[in-house]
Amino acid sequence: MNNNSTMQSNISNKPNNMNVVPNSMPSAGIPIQQNKNMMTNNQKTSPNMNSIPNMQTKQPNMNAQLNLANSRNIDFTKIPVVDAVNMIIITAVDLGASDIHFDPTDEGITVRIRIDGILRDQFFLPKEIKQNVTTRIKIMAGMNITETRLPQDGGIKDTIKGRELDLRVSSLPTKRGEKIVIRIMDYSMSLKGIEYLCFSETNYNKVIKMLGFPNGIILVTGATGTGKSTTLYSFLQKLNVEGSNLITVEDPVEMDIKGVNQVQVNSDIGLDFATVLRSILRQDPNIIMIGEIRDSETAQIAVRASITGHLVLSTIHTNNSLNTIERLLDMDVERYLLASALTGIVSQKLARRLCDNCKKKRAVTITEKNLFKTVLGLDINEVYDANTSGCPHCSHGYKGRIALQEVLLINQDIRDAISAGMRKEQLRHLVYNKDVITMLQDGLFKVIAGFTTTEEILKQIEVEDEDFGIK
Fold first, then answer.
1. pTM for the predicted model, two decimal places
2. Where residue 74 falls among pLDDT bands split at 50, 70, 90?
3. All structural domains of the chain
């Protein structure tokens, strides 16, 4: 693949608006170019808190939040099961939850909801309605209500109390009954576009450049629940223009996109990723999106497709750019093919975002000061922290989540290193050169800008002693 290829005319070089983190990231060993929104020495930051949109796609409904305490004292035995289940789902959606857990106990069911990555108790359902609630959810999800010994998957696409919902449902048999988990799907951020995904200006420009190539493979990486699908769909939205044939293969199809041919795999009839991909290549596609690369066969077909004139987008479960390259090699992708095919890697994690209404400023600790100095080359004296008491607008000082990103645009040096079988440490030096903003650097700049906290960054990203200035 020629990386000097002319970019497609439909891909803009600049954001439609400046909803990206300002370009203020360092080159290796060189002091960082300062940005007006960053705080150094005696300068105080006054960042525009709307410059990085919330990665959490659902903003909590404040009326629901204020009634949180009352919701835990509801007598569900006096409510029809249909209404009870609907109320639980709508409450979770209003509170900005990503998942609802129905945990069976000897006394009934504890309902927990995950908000900003944290699980918290929300409702208790007595044992008198335990089975009825489980059955009702399985009926809504199109699952077999007579099968309680095996795990099942289902989905709910319906309008509940005037709300159009897309939910994924899974059941798991446990000692005390079936555990149900409902994943609340929300792709409003994908519909808004790449400009709203918290990229720094440098990273944004890299993404736009890699999407402009006519062929190659672009991978979005991260653990489960880190927003990979949201990012991938936003890429598709950018590429979905007249004159292009876009085909996706997914398990399942999570978001309907007008103008895109979407195929859902069905392993029960042998319609797996590899089978669909072979057929897709005969459908004259310009762009192929694979929901996830899970095995060697899929990886090999995807890579071969990307070097035969197709732009391939996919996700893979790895933590960073270097691990992604190693993972593909472990999947028996030939080095020379990977070197030719790989265009870019976007790695990401999610951190809780500070509530703009109640966050408070404090002096940095010695450990934090060393971290900022060592990793960023900056002398930082103050940062924002969470108000643990919270406010009417948030829960415990946080509201929503923000992405921490690492974007690698593959260059010729990296291609040569992959092809030549360069050792891991040498490859690491090439990957994390002066042009790459590591996820740790990206996160710390978002701390300085007042979007999240050092504590959140250290929860998400492994930090070496050297990063704290410890030799």
1. 0.80
2. confident
3. 62-184 (3.30.450.90), 189-468 (3.40.50.300)
